Amino acid sequence: MTQLTLSQDILTGITNLGNQLNLSVNELLEQISQGNLTVINTEELEDLLDVRDAIIAETDPDNQERISWEDVKQDLGL
Hints:
elongated; mainly alpha; 62% helix
């Protein structure tokens, strides 16, 4: 077994994250190392969710009416 030294702040953060997922620190790190959990940058996640929402909106039958770019510019006062 290899020892790892963490600051108290980092250990607290990892412990809190594990608690949110109902996992011990060891289980949390094991799940990450096995590829069962992924760490993702929150900005990247927001971008992915925005793309998902746009796809959902485009496929909604109620959103099939197309608006010309000229109408959009006029509505914006451009």
